[in-house]
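Input sequence (458 aa), recorded before submission:
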Amino acid sequence: MNRKFFGTDGVRGVYGGPVMNEAFAARLGFATVSWLRAAAAVPARTGGPSTDAPNGLRVLIGRDTRASGAALEAAIARGLRAAGAEPVSLGILPTPAVARAVRIGGARLGVVITASHNPAADNGIKLFGPGGRKLTDEDEARIEGHLGAPLNTPDQPLAVMGSAMADYISAAQALLPPGSLAGWRVVIDTAHGATCATSPVVFRRLGAEVIGLGDEPDGSNINAGVGSEHPEVLAARVRATGARLGVAHDGDGDRCVLCDETGAVLDGDELLTILATHALAEGRLEKKTLVVTMQSNLGVDAAVNAAGGRVLRSNVGDRYVIERMQAEGATLGGESSGHIICSEVSPTGDGLVAAIKVVEVMLATGRPLSELRRVMQKFPQRTAALPVIEKKPLEMLPSLTSAIRGLESELGGKGRVMVRYSGTEPKLRLLVEGPTEAVVDEAIARLAAAVRADLAAG
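Predicted structure, token format:
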């Protein structure tokens, strides 16, 4: 089913634009409840809405630190209430904490107002169903089918639930023994976002000395030169302070990248490989399976296979990883971007949980992160993200399709090419892996030139 407004991770756009505005947010809130009511008349399925009557339908709403968040929260609450739901504000809270609150509290729906790693001028809306799980493509298409005319209903004061943050912090803290990080110095970059009041608190309570970065949100500085999109800032601070570990989140806290004690940055592929191979050695990796996306480096497969496990791949997007994990009975999966799902702890990607799980391996082995990362040898890889005005079908780009075919033939089994449109931004993403740096550099340049030729011709 085709979707017009939903992308890879919810609805997203420039605040005040044709989609991300108060009128659309209200319509979306109303449409979502309408979908839930319609779904109550059909048999239940895994991860979808239950079949009980939607009376007393409680919806939990969290948001990140963007200045536009409060207005969009009030608007979507207006639409939810107009459709007969009971909206409850959780305030500023990381995305995984909202998912947890939905699961623990038995709410019928969760809403997070965030544009994740995007600039402050953007905002977005993510939805969670019962159990704190993201909706499927089919669910989102059906919600769009319920979008109606603009609503003319007044705002009302929102009920507030103040316990969700404390509950989330306590649950994360309980993943490690009390005082287990005594003597550790950790740099934590919270991207001026939703994790400012969560991740540093957890690490301090576990005994670590925390040096903060990106921890002064003002509504307009989220992700601005800090966070997981700019890990070089974290790396420099780790080196300057002699820290044992660096942690960087994105604006809503559902992803992380880490930095070892030398200042080297580890992406999601490396973190997943460390977690998977350690779990295999301990006999604890469920189904001996790790789920990654088509974008993950082939070095993940080589390391996990050598350790006695298997790697399965999904489409790009953490919810597609989750769907594949559920289908295969796996409990560990994620993306190279730093979305890491440890489903025995959290139903969705959680940057704080991921960081703690890697720390758990460091404590168990007594080895620094710089040594643990050696389990994976990356294949040379290059990526590029080219801005586009229109997302034309790839088969309508003749120079690009010809370049792809040529490169796939040349690389054979020694590499791969992936070209796809971003699900959250107006960009065409290119990826090449190959046997040497020179080969992948030349290949990515050929693809980019082909794209530019097609766009110029169009």
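Checked by second reader. The first strand starts at residue 6 and ends at 7.
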